[in-house]
User: Fold these one by one.
Assistant:
Number 1:
Amino acid sequence: MAKVIDTKKSCAVYPLKLSQPMGAAYCFLGIDKSMPIMHGSQGCAAFAKTFLTRHFRELIPMQTTALSEIATVIGGDSNIHEAIKNVIDKNNPNVVGLVSTGVSETRGDDVIGSLKRFKSNFPDYADKKVVYVSTPDYLGSFETGYEKALLEVVKALVEPPRRKYRDKVNIFVSYALTAGDIEEIKDMLKDFELDAVVVPDFSRSIGLMSDFSPITIGGTTLEEIQGLASSSFSIAIGYSSKAAAEYLEKEYNVPMFYFESLLGLKSTDEFYELLIKLTGREPSDKYKRYRSRLLDTMADGQFYFSGKSVALGLGPDLLTSLVLFLKEELGLNIECAVSPVHTPNLDLLPIDTVYIGDLEDIKLNAKHVDMIISNTNGQHIAKHFKVPLLRIGIPIFDRVGHFFRTYVGYKGTLEFLCELTNLFLEHDEEKSYEVPEFAKQMKEEIL
């Protein structure tokens, strides 16, 4: 078990933490015809919109209640009511996600009461689905905001089932999964003749060429979410998706199975064992070939990652996923692991210490590393140690196409392993051409 140390810094030097409201708003981007509204100042929404636009290189639907200084102090329902009414009148979304911020939470707005009064004052809008998520900036992080939003979506929108469908399965996904990951998971389930409802389904909503729309296009539909209780079972992948699946199990008796990750040979084997047990079917030869290729590449790569040390600066779900694969399956040394927020899954990691802080904590606590694994901001730490940076997570500003890559299953693990091994190989090759220090000293003495 890992010892989790909160560094309790006065300020972030190389930031890793992202805000709760942004994580909650991101969840709604995977729901078809939805619109996230941030209940706060215009700057709150503007920053989140710009940040996500840079990461995905897409137009991000997002609105704000635009609280002014006076409205923040005096309060009242007007900003919330006007924002929701304007969004519905202009865009007619199926789902409105109302996300609080530090501004509204500090004042203590009664948002739930305000939504009840909205439906009472505007009965024509009473049937519109508005999901409220409490996400103050000063607590939690992107991960906890996403977790809260996914749970509130299930609580607010799922309806009692009329019947059960034997081959229908719910897949609750972590914020850390890419569009490529989601499509790979759906293909794996289709191979077992299972009809998967992914919540939220970013593979259908982000990165598609289409006409301009002020609301999300594609993603999990409202009807699919309402019918989640009719599935035979649910699978939650990543800790941030676990609470939603547990709620569905408790309230609607839909059995839930949980996986920390689907990156790696062990976790993918366990995933297939579960599907074989539940369906009585066998995977196709295609996935058996992928597994064989993965084993072969793990054997080939051991010469390049054996004895290597890495430092990780990632959100809890990604950090858990990579530590389990890199340490337990590849034998890499985890020199330093940093997360922006403490979640229960971090306590169970098979390493000595996890720091709750920012990327500077890698610089302060790592003695020797051969690679940094983090988002774009990790490049400064990689330059300090003069080692390669393997980019993963959010944000990725200096590369194109990251969101379409695959990291799960045998195929995704194989692709990730090749990237990891090739970065080690390339770095070792560059180091082999460096002039040793003793040779430099001999040259100076001769001269």
Number 2:
Amino acid sequence: MTTEPRPKRRRWLRIAGLVVAAIAAAHGIAVCFGIVISWPFDVALNLGGDVSETALHAPADGRRRVVVLQHGLWRTPASLGRLERTLRAHGYEVHNPGYPSTRASIEDAAVLLHAAVERIYAPAPVDELYFVGHSLGGLVIEQYLRGPDARPVTACVYLATPHRGAVLADLRKHWFLFPLLMGEAAASELSPGNALHQRPIPAAEVSGTIVGDLGEGNRSIPGRDDGTVAIGEAALTGARDSVTLPLSHTAISYSPAAILQVLHFLRHGGFARVAEPR
């Protein structure tokens, strides 16, 4: 049995290192110029068929029911494409505005959301206004709702949103690649110690949380988590309802199980009961 010569092995390691460096540099340049390179990834994950459940269709009573979506960090509106299509097929008017998550602060993103909501109201009044946010998108929604001129909300659904910050952000913020990949605005505000997380969270009484649970998905995070956000971080004190699903932080944004729960909450004001993961 022969072993690979060391010079050849070192050469492959150098090539691998150069490839990683090139990818990181390309993403850094993309972030600087506002180019989001996760779009193909987001599209691919959301190619699945629309989720259909006739019983969860919005009432056909002529009321204007609007759902506004907000994607997470390093993602695009395409990351909620399957959810968007499904909600529209179930009788909702859906708006899925994006924001530069690696360049804008949560406060800046909330300003963009405010402008998007006002454009929705421009042509005609809205009878029911719903928000659905994945991860950081949920924090953007909460910041928007803190504004004195926020529109009255009917209900909110949060998908794996770390309402008071995520410990993983503290653990990773000193990595040299962290600001390059995630930016230095909203990503830094994910730290649980950020003053943003000391503010009251509006509309908790009409909100629902969908929490991912992979057990000890990430050993850097104490306790159970979805690989990125701890179960306790995705909990919202005073929420109307909460459901836990055995899904990862990314999968919870496009999984049929999670999408059905969103539909159930919008239709009935609560989630369908499921067996808790062990």
Number 3:
Amino acid sequence: MTKLSSCMKVFALLFLAGAAVPLLAQKLTTLHSFENSDSYFPYAGVIQGTNGDFFGAGSDGGSVGGGSIFKMTVKGALTPIYSFPAGSNPARDLVQGADGDFYGATADGGENSDGSIYKITAGGGLTTLHSFDSTDGKNPYDALVQASNGDFYGTTSEGGASGDGTVFKITKSGTFTSLHSFTGKDGKDPSGDLVQDANGDFYGLTEFGGAHNGGTVYKITPGGKLNTLHSFAGKDGALPVGYLIEAANGDFYGTTADGGANGDGTIFEITPSGTLTTLLSFTSAAGQTGDLVLGTDGNLYGETEGGGANDHGSIFKVTPAGTLTTEHSFDTTDGAEPLGALVQGTDGDFYGTTMQGGTNNLGTVFSFSMGLGPFVKIEPTSGIVGADVKILGSELTGATSVTFNGDAATFTVVSSSEISTTVPAGATTGKVQVVTPGGTLLSNVNFSVTP
């Protein structure tokens, strides 16, 4: 079973008993409907670049037939910047490195047709950094993460010493290191992006394997030492999908495709030491998703691939206490089957893609407003004292102050959407604050000051 088909069977998110609220379709704006020439079926979401534009990938179509990388303005003007050859399958979200280039993976293609890692400039110049050969991994379906040491870390869903997937790191110049090969007992088929905590360790999920073959939550050091934090057993969930997201208190949120009180999947919270709490057990198999995003209002947001009022997918909100509401149901005219993750733009709105629907039934890019205010993003979200950091936002011209959890930093305003700074001496983990002529902006997540 491929990662994509596995994710498409995933869990259920439509209604909790008594939790549904009236749909607010006017919140959603279709920014672009894909057509064959600019690629289609964007099962990855989009990310916001330092220039304020959004970047993403379509898995098929484009000028060569293998999908493309595109950029899009906040208003929806979309331009393909690179087209892949047939059979490449550009997998998940891009990540913008500290050098300004974008890094990503193709699930297939490369020299051995087992997938590849690439970097691409904002202008479309692509360099293949590594081609997998199954011994060092196969089918990298998830996004890379740039660590505080500047290297990129990621996973492959298959391959490695046991064929059960791997964890790897790769430098921006392409030096590749295999860190861990899963054995089944410690997990199988890693799912979702890694996330790095303030101590420099990474946390992730495997969809299968573990003590009960229901998947695991694991921690792995930058050097490759892996510790299984939790093996799912069914009642606490099974088949974790998507990726973990870190809350302000240092705990992580995630989802499972199956299991829980009703057998339809869960949302869970887990501490860095492995104590797991089930926040919500789903009651219907009408929807499918795997990725959550923590909004600036403290609520979790996500999408269902199916379900909703029209059975074409939905956008939902979950409070920290576990109360779920459906905020929008897709009706094909505005998209269908939203499989990629939502991302919150610095204007406060959420942005995402749908696999199908829209004018040509080839998928869409949309924005979705919950009335949340603007904020600033920090890239990367962790680093040592003295590390270079980019602060992204809007209307940053004229900024007068940048602080890391209260400690003042020197900075340079690069443009209206970007500030360049370094982590100041004495800084501790916490919010980044920017004072502008238009008001004070806080970061959407804590910046973790790592050893």
Number 4:
Amino acid sequence: MLALRNKIALRLGYKSWDDYQTEIKMAKTSAGAKSYIDNLISGIQPKFAAEVSAFQKMKAADTNNPDATIDIWDWRHYTNQLKKQKYNVDTEALRAYFPFQKVLEGMFKIYQSIFGLKFEQITAPSKWIGDLQLYVVTDSATGEPLGMFYLDMFPREGKYNHFAEFEIIGGKLWPDGKYQRPTVALLCNFPPPNVDKPSLMTHTDVETLFHEFGHALHSITTRAHYARFAGTHVPGDFVEAPSQMLQNWVWDKKVLDTFAGDYRDPSKKIPAATIQKMNDAKLATAGVFYRRQFAFASLDLALHGVHQEDAPYDCVAISNPVVEKVFLPIDPGTTFVTYFGHLNGYDAGYYGYAWADAIAADIATAFEKANGQYLDRDAGLRLRHEIYKQGDGRDVSLSIEKFLGRKQSIEPFLKKIAVTGTAEKKKTPAGPSQESR
């Protein structure tokens, strides 16, 4: 794969496959992507080192060996042990607070309010499943119809078995000045109700719903002139960021209290201490989690970097040192790269996960600083008009900066994952024209 990709890139006049792949993304060049990941690697180093040190002490106690080292096969075990010992939360018991219909209605109420929208259920003209729902979305101020969304929420035989938003009709401007209103479908697999209980969601399910519905809003509120650039048709290293950002909502007690209540007694809310413990558990090993992600992003870019056309590839020799340098010591006889399925489909693009996470944290600051925080209407309308509405009709870097009122930064991301400080305050480089950041 690498040899063929490299040959294609060179024949097309690029220096490498990663330069070819990043040209149409926010990164613009492989140098932009690499610089971004390198800044994150160095920025997260203090937290990563502290977590590995905590793991080392646990392993030293387990093995009676004060010199025990944390190897790459240890991190999952000690992540689990740490969370069990310090942050034990009964996730199954939390289901009682998340009956599906209440969560859906609560999410609708929040998104309608902050984005200035109105959702109205109508009868679907035709259905592919009996419990299919169809909603019309209008602007709450003007009454202008904006688009529609279908909800296909529960599992069944033969159905797509993950969670995703699919575009059915994309937005675009017709020659006569009318706008083609988008229609999308949300396909989910939440636990179905039974005779004794309603559908009860896990907290992760709720997070997934808030995320996926963000993609639906991105698609429906677009006003980009061309379908190719409308809604979620944005650079691959940005498309997840606006929805990723909306996941913050379900970790906030003020937001959760608007819809989460015990289905047997809705007046009972999730205790603040439980929500705090959930947040603490999420942050406890964020350094190790993200350094692993950064290692994969780095090896992906390294494998697709500059390479002579006819020179052979020693993929293990390229990738193993990268993983060891960025993450943890590995057995030199192992070949992680032969298992790394993301090389097929995310080639020279795995960095996009971290890129989107950092942008999402940056965008979220506009809500966190607003008077109403995550329920703030002004921040929501600005997000809708400066980012969702634009699609890729203008450079998404410009859209982000217009929304934020400043240049992008990785500092909010580092702060969010509890990195208290970095050696240097670095702004996020997003391409050759912005290297001054």
